[in-house]
Amino acid sequence: MLARLTARDRIAVLLGGAALALFLVAKFVLFPLLDRLPEGSVEEKELALQCERSLVATSESQAASLSAAQERLKSVEAGLLESPSPSLANAEWQRLVRDLAESKAVEVASTESLRVQELGPEYTLVTGQVKLRCRLDQLVDFMAALATAPRLLSVTTLRIAPIPGEPQKRMNVEMTVGAAMRGVKGTPGGNAAAVPK
């Protein structure tokens, strides 16, 4: 078959065969050998290793920070009201305030629910007004009890007025007390809704 080819065609076939042989040697012998050769200097590899180690250390510290934040969130959420609905949460915070007042010998004149406010997708704030009659030292004890109560209770407004002619120096106290609970599904986002009394 090669005998039928002209001299020019034979040279072309031989050059093509040599090129194919060179390609196969480069692809299956030379390139794999080059891939096994070390890239860069020792210093460059050291820097790359240090970068990878710092990334691993950062990811471990972030995981530790995340677990600590989750534990803190769990402990804070233990202070939320346990009731599943706003009306039950309203009754719960009123009972809590009455129990604290009774433990400090403070007279509760009235409690009244004001509103339920969504604090985002997960939490809701139930607020109400409390009217008390007590002496100043009893009020201080009551406020300290509110601050250290197992449930998260906040006082946003406080008005104190003396009772004229009161022999025991008692005062009329009005305060707005808020208590947080888990979010209520179906409450309009960010709008305050009235709580049924």
Give a concise summary.
The protein is α+β, with helices and mostly antiparallel strands and 197 residues long. It contains 4 helices and 5 strands, in the order αααββαβββ.
The average pLDDT score comes to 81
Oligomer: single chain
Q: What's the helical proportion of residues?
A: 40-55%
Question: Tally the helices: what do you get?
Answer: 4
Distance between the termini: 107 Å
- At the fold tier of CATH, the topology name of the largest domain is Alpha-Beta Plaits
Profile the largest sheet.
Answer: 5 strands, antiparallel
Q: What order do the SSEs take from the amino end to the carboxyl end, as H and E?
A: HHHEEHEEE
Radius of gyration: 39 Å
As a percent range, the share of strand residues is 15-25%
Structural class: alpha+beta
CATH class of the largest domain: Alpha Beta
Q: What is the name of the CATH architecture of the largest domain?
A: 2-Layer Sandwich
CATH superfamily of the largest domain: Ribosomal protein S6/Translation elongation factor EF1B
Largest sheet: spatial strand order: 3-4-2-1-5
The tally of domains stands at 2
